[in-house]
Amino acid sequence: MKVYGLIGYPLTHSFSQRYFSEKFSQENIQGCTYQNFSIPSMDEFPVVLTTPGLSGLNVTIPYKEAVIPFLDETDEVVKEIGACNCIRIEDGKKTGYNTDVIGFERSLQSGLQARHDKALVLGTGGAAKAVKWVLKKKGIPFLSVSRRPEPPETLSYADLTPDLIASHRLIINTTPLGMYPLVEECPPIDFNAVESNHFLFDLIYNPETTRFLQYGMDKGATTQNGFDMLIHQAEESWKIWNNLI
Ligand code: NAP
């Protein structure tokens, strides 16, 4: 039996276990199982690694950075951004990858137009690092926005003037603001400056339409939630675990 799984804490609303269990059943993939490993501390990670048949792991909050010292090798993206969300385990060797990057890149592509040539990235956590890596790769200049800004690299939300919002037509929410169950929350930006030529991307997938996306829709902007990104990153993990790329 090949065992795949997810490490993180807490894992009360894990998308991955349901996704992979359904995938195994729908695609008639035999001899595989996907387990949640809810570990309150990375001290328990070595125990997870003793699971018989363990062939691959996804990594979620709060361990995407903390897992790196436990790995034997990492790919270039993990080295550069310092966050890993996918581990291939082969003959005991643990190699780290970041499939959030590919997930975001593929999902962004669906709505991206030439006019979305400058971006605002809200939040500076692990997911923001993956987002910024993709923007750099695509040659889209961006400004980071944080509650604890470090000028000139990072702006505060108060720095986001209507002009700045109007001139940055790609706005990406990488904060958890608006995620279930706190669905009333929203990044504090002036939506009056958002227009129909904007593209608002929210990494949150639950709820489907966050306040952030709804305010964008009200202005006729293009919007995208985090669901496709999630599917793309999961499928990319599957390919990595099975040497399909
Ligand atoms: P994280 O490391 O906790 O970072 C989130 C960042 O958001 C923080 O660094 C912080 O930046 C900002 N933030 C946190 N709480 C805030 C608050 N109350 N008000 C304003 N800003 C706040 O989380 P993450 O791993 O980057 O994930 C962020 C979101 O992306 C989550 O909702 C997660 O579910 C989602 N995500 C989705 C996918 C997908 O496939 N769709 C993949 C990865 C993550 P500052 O301190 O700089 O303000």
Mean pLDDT: 96
**Main beta-sheet annotation:** 6 strands, mixed
- Could you estimate the helical fraction of the residues in percent? 25-40%
Bound small molecules, deduplicated: NADP nicotinamide-adenine-dinucleotide phosphate
Q: Low-confidence parts, pLDDT < 50 over ≥5 residues?
A: none
Order of helices and strands: EHEHEEHEEHEHEEHEEHEH
Number of helices: 8
Count of DSSP E strands? Answer: 12
Strand order within the widest beta sheet: 2-1-3-5-6-4
Structural class: alpha/beta
Q: What sort of overall outline do the alpha carbons produce when their principal axes are compared? A: elongated
Radius of gyration: 19 Å
Strand content is 15-25%
Distance between the termini: 22 Å
Mind explaining what this structure looks like?
It is a single chain. Helix content is 31%, strand content 22%. It has 8 helices and 12 strands. The protein has helices at residues 15-26, 45-48, 76-81, 99-109, 126-138, 162-167, 211-218, 227-241; strands at residues 2-8, 32-38, 54-59, 73-74, 86-90, 93-97, 119-122, 142-145, 154-155, 170-173, 199-202, 222-224. Strand 5 and strand 6 (93-97) form a beta hairpin. Bound molecules: NADP nicotinamide-adenine-dinucleotide phosphate. Residues 61, 100, 103, 123-128, 146-148, 174-177, 179, 203-205, 226, 229-230, 233 line the site of NADP nicotinamide-adenine-dinucleotide phosphate.
Considering the chains and any ligands shown, give keywords for the structure.
245 residues; alpha/beta; six-stranded mixed β-sheet; six-stranded parallel β-sheet; 8 helices; 12 strands; binds NADP nicotinamide-adenine-dinucleotide phosphate
